[in-house]
Each structure stands twice: as C-alpha cells, then as structure tokens.
Amino acid sequence: MDLTIHHLRCFLAVAEERHFGRAAARLHLSSSAVSEQIAALERRLARTLFQRTSRSVEPTEHGRELEPRAREAVAAMDEVLAWARKTADEPGVRVGLMVSSPRFRRTMAAVADELPQVRWQIRQLGFLGCHDALAGGEVDCAFVAELGRNPSPAFESVPLWEERCVLVVPDRHPLAGRESVRLADLDGETFVSVEDETAARHWSSPLTEAGINPELLPIARNFEEVLELCGAGQGVNVAGESAPETYARPGLAFVPIEDSPPATTYLYLRRERHSGALERLARIAVGLGDAPG
C-alpha cells in the first residue's frame, strides 16, 4: 500500500489528541476508520508508531521521530492544494478585439496552452466599442489596431506587431488591378471610416501627416461593415497586410501600399494593477510580436 497524505493526517490527529475517538471526531471519521489508517501506516513503514492501552495512546520513539516529518509533508501538500484552489478560482480574462488577425489567434492559442485553468473570453468590440468597453470595465484588455504609431493616451499601450498596409477596394475599382499603389494615388478617394468624428480624425491623422487629405465617409462601426461598404463601392479603406488572410471575400481587392504608415496593433490596458493572468497575456503577446517599443 502506498503512503498517502490521508495516512499522515490521521497520524498527526492521533499524536496530538492522544485518543482515537477525539482524533476521529476532528477528522469527521469513525474511530475504526482512523484505527485502520494508523495500522496501514505502521505496516507501510514497518514501525510501531503508538503504544496503545485501554487508557492512553502514546507515540513511540518512531512516532515521535515521524511527527515533525509528517507535519512538514502535510504542510507542503496543503500549500499545493491552496495554490491549486487559488489558480482554479482565478477570474476569467475578458479580451476585447477590434480587428482579428492571424497573430492575434496565435497569441490567444499560446496563452490558452500556457494557462489552461484561466477562462479566456474574447469580445468582438469593433471600432467604436474598444475604448468605452475598456474604460467601463467590460473587458480587461483590448487588442486595438491603429494606423501608424498612434496609440490612445487614455490607456497603457503595449506595441505588439506592425504590418505593412493594403488598400481595400472593390474589385472593379481602377486601382484594384495594380500590383501596388502609393499614398499619392489615393488623393481624392473617399475613405469609409467610423461613425464617431473624433475617432475618425484619430484614425486618419497619420494619412494627413503623410500629406493626404482623405475625404471621410463616417458610417461604419466595425471592420465587417467597412468591407461590405467598400464592396458596395461606397469608398476605400486601409488595413494591415494580413487582412486578406482573415477577411478575403468575393468582390474585394487588397492592394499593397508602398509608402503607407504601418498598421500597428497595441494591447491596451487600464492604468491599474493587473491580474497575474493578464500580466502573462501581455508578456506572451509581446514575445510573439515584433513592434518597436
């Protein structure tokens, strides 16, 4: 029979109580069950641990030698169990997402593999919901794509990865058949943008700084709507070069932009103490990313 922590718990209860009945009551077991556990432990160790009389139960010399060792083993097991309960009870992490990408999926697969006990939730927030959801506590962090190196000052921002940009156009657009375009080619184009005017200006400011004055059509709330509107010929848009892998569909073309500012994905966090799981998510995301600090 293998030695178990249950054997040692029974041994310590009898050693401390000096009575099988009181030890059994303390352990919520019957006296016979405790007696059986002690007998099994003595057989396993090939040592008599208690001198039993009709009036008393006293540890033998071997019992006294075992007692500190048993306490140490039980304390170590209790520490392991407490750690396991704490880890299992750790609240889930709610991850906000503006736009999906292959690197985002690889990041979440890596954190799920490394922290399988954490309940990971992914919330699709679109363009307009990320900041409000993070500020309001609806999510614990958010993966946000920005045009250029232009993070929001409202949050702690961790740069993760950068991509070259592509122009999203309907496949019947004059630029759709080009191998690549330059920003100057986009002068006079209408850009489908987000409904919020402040957010639209923030998104387009890298284009303005590059000398392009885009005409904004502020009618979209998420990238799916942008794609549908571009496909319908309402305007064009700029996306990271991985967009075709996730969002390719009939009627759209994705044309590389030679001189565009990069599309940078940031991990946004509230400026407060973070959970261990969230800190680990950030470290893994940075490790898999390649953006400059």
Automatic annotation (TrEMBL):
<dbReference type="GO" id="GO:0003677">
    <property type="term" value="F:DNA binding"/>
</dbReference>
<dbReference type="InterPro" id="IPR036388">
    <property type="entry name" value="WH-like_DNA-bd_sf"/>
</dbReference>
<comment type="similarity">
    <text>Belongs to the LysR transcriptional regulatory family.</text>
</comment>
<dbReference type="Pfam" id="PF03466">
    <property type="entry name" value="LysR_substrate"/>
</dbReference>
<feature type="domain" description="HTH lysR-type">
    <location>
        <begin position="1"/>
        <end position="60"/>
    </location>
</feature>
<keyword id="KW-0805">Transcription regulation</keyword>
<dbReference type="InterPro" id="IPR000847">
    <property type="entry name" value="LysR_HTH_N"/>
</dbReference>
<keyword id="KW-0804">Transcription</keyword>
<dbReference type="InterPro" id="IPR005119">
    <property type="entry name" value="LysR_subst-bd"/>
</dbReference>
<protein>
    <submittedName>
        <fullName>DNA-binding transcriptional LysR family regulator</fullName>
    </submittedName>
</protein>
<dbReference type="Pfam" id="PF00126">
    <property type="entry name" value="HTH_1"/>
</dbReference>
<keyword id="KW-0238">DNA-binding</keyword>
<dbReference type="InterPro" id="IPR036390">
    <property type="entry name" value="WH_DNA-bd_sf"/>
</dbReference>
